[in-house]
Amino acid sequence: MFLKNCWYVGAWSHELAAGNVIGRTIIGEPVALYRTQEGALHAVADRCPHRWVPLSLGRVEGDALRCGYHGLVFGPDGRCQHIPGADRIVPGANVRTFPVEERDSWLWVWMGDPARADPALIPSAFGLNDPRWTMRADQIDYAANYMLINDNLLDLSHVDFVHEKTLGAATDYGWSDEVPRVKPLNRGVRIERWLTGRRQSQTNPNLVDTWSTYDYLAPGVFIMENKSYPHGMAERCGFGEPGDKPMTYRVEQQAVAPINDRETRYFFATGFDATNLPGHLVEGIFSLVMSAFKEDRAIIEAQQLLWDRTDASMAKAFIPSDKAPAMFRRIMDSLIREEEAAGAAAAA
């Protein structure tokens, strides 16, 4: 079950060059994203209404998309403009269109009612081209439901165990020592914590306090900031949000994009303040991050297999670190119920 009136990440901006088309599946719906030579961005159903061939196998012509099978041409409004060998446009030859926006190096697609597509609901991120940051990005696919990945990202206590030799070691552990503060947001939650008295790095024994905060927003968008300070800063600011300039400043933007009920694409980028960290050091850090996400995938895909073989009525133990995942699941359930109720009322 998916929330439809929502913006989903369909691709990184750099995946779609001018004059090109790519195919994506988002919440079970095939979507063709294309750019005109002038750079205008469009999204239509990736299914020709003639023989149901993916339009993403076709080509961009002007502001239109030509099917690569029998040559039908569709405009950005979804209307069929030309059928080879026909003197008129036959009934049923149009395709669905989707609102689409480009923000912070992501291509966002609205999967629900176009009339309700509000760009203000797109979460703000950092982007890959901001000169303030040295950023690296990638994506991986999971054979798992997207909500299991959301659960994982909303409870970072697992870093000490799943990533014991990667991110756990690199951050000097401590993610499971205390439950973070969790605050409700519109369509999401904010998670805050201090990691105090940790080594600055595996090669630097100086102790630091790190302020870690992230917003987690529907349907699964993770926007994080990590700032490190000399040890003692957490206590000096009463374990609240610091206002001083940090020694190091790291950011993350990640998006969980369900392909269907059992497949998910995970977009992620990590970056550092470009004034504090040479670019060549970022490569090693990003390699560590990539290794950690593969560790997550192994755990979550194994979890999915077991969930599929387990009676859904079986109770699961609830521990303190489950607060954020549980809160976010309630938020998503509420948004989906509201959407279904509105749809039923409109149909009555």
Automatic annotation (TrEMBL):
InterPro entries in the record: Cholesterol_7-desaturase (IPR050584), Rieske_2Fe-2S (IPR017941), Rieske_2Fe-2S_sf (IPR036922), VanA_C_cat (IPR044043)
Superkingdom of this protein's organism: Bacteria
Transmembrane segments: none
Gene Ontology MF: a single term: oxidoreductase activity
Rieske domain ranges (all copies): 7-109
A Pfam family reported for this protein in Swiss-Prot or TrEMBL: Rieske
Key words, A-Z: 2Fe-2S, Iron, Iron-sulfur, Metal-binding, Oxidoreductase
UniProt keyword Membrane present: no
Gene3D superfamilies named in the record: Naphthalene 1,2-dioxygenase Alpha Subunit, Chain A, domain 1, Rieske [2Fe-2S] iron-sulphur domain
PROSITE patterns membership: RIESKE
Protein's UniProt keywords contain Metal-binding: yes
Database matches in PANTHER family: 3-KETOSTEROID-9-ALPHA-MONOOXYGENASE, OXYGENASE COMPONENT, IRON-SULFUR DOMAIN CONTAINING PROTEIN
Protein name: Rieske domain-containing protein
Organism lineage: Bacteria, Pseudomonadati, Pseudomonadota, Alphaproteobacteria, Sphingomonadales
